[in-house]
Amino acid sequence: MPSIFSRIIAGELPCYKVYEDEHYFAFLDIRPVVKGHTLVIPKNEVDYIFDLDSEEYIGLMLVAKKIAKALKSVVSCSRIGVAVVGLEVPHTHVHLMPINAVSDMNFKNLPLSMSEEEFSALADKIRSSI
Q1: Under CATH, to which class is 4-129 assigned?
Q2: What does the pLDDT read at residue 1?
């Protein structure tokens, strides 16, 4: 059964896409810990990041870097935090999160509330900055 992320890539489920190429896909997390919280995934559905082959792993990180630079130019922050937890969805994903303090990356924080219009506008800004 395809993961929720594979279903997003296939267009079966909606998302606020910020990036797509032949091998990778990125979109805003719909339950963001902070404004701009973005997920970067390989299109190839692999559960555990360290099961990716080296080429795919490096490609994922290069795409994450590209998106992080765009994200930092759009969302006011000190840095873009990076996390790979991998327990929520069985599909490798990198969290990119604009942060000003380590506590900004606390996944126990309540999700930020954003309207569809805010999500769409933010995704457009990030996309146009890549």
Answers
A1: alpha beta
A2: 83
